[in-house]
Amino acid sequence: MNRAWPYDTAATDFAARRAHEERRSYARRPKKIADVVAQLIAKRGYGRHEATDQLAAAWSAAAGDALAAASRAGRIRRGQLEVLVANSTVMQEFSFQKQRILTELGRLLPDAKIRDLRFRVGAIK
Fold it and tell me: What 3-state DSSP class applies to 48?
């Protein structure tokens, strides 16, 4: 017969109360300013704006002036950069220069880890 010791339940209750108190006291502790600023930047999306500007500048440099004017870099998903192009003729030109552009983007944005380009025809603003 397996009986629960009265001490086991008391220890469990004590551990639960202690964990609860630690959570409560953590909420009342002063926060580090670095943590607060990091949360604010993440919440407001300031880091994304800077990354978007860097991507646009790198795209303009990698594609060249003529092709960059007829295209716009979108977002990176799973290593694939989505590019919006003005028409199918520009899309075909990009397909010819795809490898050169990928190499240049890899040099300009090594942390982005862009492995492929995906082109879509649409309105360029």
Answer: helix
